[in-house]
Specification:
The structure holds two protein chains of two kinds. By secondary structure, chain A is of the alpha+beta class. Chain A has eight helices and 19 strands. In chain A, the strands form four sheets. Chain A has a seven-stranded antiparallel sheet with strand order 2-11-10-5-4-3-6, with no helix packed on it. In chain A, strands 12-18-17-16-15-14-13 form a seven-stranded antiparallel sheet, with helices on both faces. A three-stranded antiparallel sheet of chain A has the order 7-8-9, with no helix packed on it. In chain A, a hairpin with a 5-residue loop joins strand 8 and strand 9. Chain B is built from four helices and one strand; from the N terminus they run ααααβ. In chain B, helix 1 crosses helix 4, helix 2 crosses helix 4 and helix 3 runs antiparallel to helix 4. The chains are: A alpha+beta, B mainly alpha. Chains A and B meet through strand 12, helix 6 and helix 7 of A and helix 3, helix 4 and strand 1 of B.
């Protein structure tokens, strides 16, 4: 018996007949040729969130973003006119990487007045114009106005900085569509205290989205995280979401969150009882505006037991908003068909007291304990998918977003391949 | 090194560490007995430490108070091994790692 009502179509999945209900083929996560197609069809053509406006607070603030999946590195910088721009991180003279420190492959951040190439000292203004050429008289009719940095589309939604390598892409807001529109007004700008985790994971990027786009695995894989009686209960009950929505290419899952605060304090660990915090974050919401009422896109099922909503912005951004007033983002940056860099950011309203800071510390540490289990499991999955002993896998109704993700990538790849023929 | 009310924690000041990376590394390098001993003294003082620290603005903690907060961060880090895992590593995490590359300053 379901605990929560399903749509009249009979299941969440059957609401979207284009997705079907058959087993899903996972060749898309192991085939190197498919990965090459994804790079062109998905990552070079969709809006990618590379950070937040708080990372470039003032004129000259910049950071670099390595995009191995698109064979490039970008510079994101705030100009004198306060606009945020993105450029390919390449000097127009001989192609050296323009902004880096000791190690060319590592991302860097800082503040500067201009960018100067380490190789022959060509200089560029914050808005990308070439302003200085060493021994300019040695060149042959060099017109500096033709050698500015190569600019990339860069637009901001609710403080999130997105780039798109496709100059013909739809504007960002149009691309993000209704799911994003429903979140506008959420006080993201108040939640500026950040914990950033980073890991290299030996799996295809889609497999980690698969892990975080359903919570159905939690009572099983993370069983030992709960005290025994609670773990047994969770395992027996299983997991059902409150609500799902797909506005292709994006999707969301809405979930309950009974641990924040828990009805029964005996089900949580001693440190959680003292600090009143845990995986679901500090139990009490911060005292800021914008949380009551919430924007209409949150808790779309209007459920009393609501605890969090997790949005999958295609292709590689998860935005998870918790009821008690904090949020998380995950990003999955492919580096090979069977590897990716995983980044998780936890965003809180800045702590004013040590007690508030300790609550955040517990939430951040707890996140890591869970995520390590997820990351490690993915490596096990990748190795066995690669065996091709089994190629097609049944997905249940709680795995709707996975079904949608793999189909959406396939649609992009097919459309791109067809157009090329 | 710590506020005088928390003298009982002085033997555990090697757990006063600046970053999560250092705290987690020390956890991995410690035996369950070592972590249990730290936890047994520190956990009963967590509430009192929170109350004490809340007398100061977070960004102006005197040195002993700041050390106490960092020590309590370590308590949070070892609470998982002590309260649930019974081992330093996260079960089922194998060779996986996850680095905290940005954390709020205190």
């Amino acid at each position: 018996m379901p605990h929560f009502a399903k749509p009249s179509a009979g299941s969440w999945t059957e609401q979207y007949p284009e997705l079907g209900t058959s087993p899903v083929n996972y060749e898309d996560s192991i085939d190197p040729a498919y990965y090459e197609a994804e790079r062109e069809a998905v990552f070079k053509r969709t809006w990618l969130n590379v950070g937040r406006v708080e990372q470039v607070p003032k004129t000259g603030s910049y950071f670099t973003k390595e995009l191995a999946v698109a064979d490039t590195s970008l510079i994101v910088v705030r100009g004198r006119d306060k606009e945020i721009r993105a450029f390919h991180n390449i000097c127009r003279h001989r192609g050296n990487k323009l902004v880096w420190n000791d190690f060319p492959g590592e991302e860097v951040k800082g503040t500067c007045r201009q960018f100067t190439c380490k190789y022959h000292a060509w200089r560029y203004s914050l808005d990308g114009e070439l302003t200085f050429v060493q021994q300019e008289q040695e060149f042959f009719d060099l017109d500096k106005s033709e050698y500015g940095l190569k600019q990339v589309r860069c637009e901001v939604w609710e403080g999130f900085v997105f780039v798109n390598l496709d100059p013909n892409a739809l504007p960002l807001r149009e691309y993000l569509g209704d799911l994003a529109k429903g979140l506008e007004g959420y006080p993201f700008h108040e939640m500026t205290e950040v914990f950033t985790y980073r890991a290299e994971i030996g799996s295809n990027w889609k497999l980690f989205i698969d892990a975080f786009a359903e919570f159905y695995h939690a009572p099983v894989l993370h069983m030992k995280q709960a005290v025994k009686d609670e773990a047994d209960k969770l395992f027996n009950v299983g997991y059902e979401a409150l609500h799902y929505e797909i506005h292709s290419p994006h999707s969301m899952i809405s979930s309950w969150g009974g641990m924040s605060p828990p009805k029964d304090l005996s089900i949580v660990k001693p440190i959680e009882r003292v600090l009143r915090s845990g995986l679901f974050g500090p139990w009490e919401a911060p005292d800021i505006g914008g949380l009551d009422p919430l924007p209409p896109g949150l808790n779309p099922g209007g459920h009393r037991a609501w605890g969090n909503d997790s949005f999958e912005f295609f292709p590689n951004m998860t935005l998870l908003i918790w009821k008690p007033g904090w949020y998380l983002t995950y990003h999955y940056w492919p580096t090979a068909v069977d590897r990716h860099i995983f980044e998780a950011n936890l965003y809180f309203v800045p702590a004013r007291t040590a007690r508030e800071r300790l609550k955040q510390e517990l939430a951040a540490v707890t996140f890591k304990e869970y995520a390590l289990q997820d990351g490690n499991t993915l490596e096990a999955t990748q190795t066995m998918l690669k065996s091709r002993v089994v190629t097609d896998f049944p997905l249940c109704d709680q795995e709707l977003l996975l079904r949608h993700l793999h189909k959406t990538v396939a649609d992009h790849v097919k459309e791109h391949t067809d157009a090329a023929q | 090194m710590l506020p005088s009310e928390f003298a009982a924690l002085e033997p555990f000041t090697p757990w006063v560490l600046e970053t999560e990376r250092e705290r987690y590394s020390k956890r991995l390098a410690s035996s369950m007995e070592e972590m249990q001993a730290f936890y047994d003294v520190a956990f009963p003082l967590l509430e009192q430490a929170s109350e004490h620290l809340d007398n100061y603005p977070l960004d102006e903690l005197p040195e002993p108070e700041r050390n106490l907060l960092l020590l309590m961060f370590s308590l949070v880090n070892v609470s998982f091994p002590v309260e649930v895992w019974k081992q330093a590593r996260v079960p089922d995490s194998g060779a996986a790692y996850m680095d905290l590359v940005v954390e709020p300053k205190v």
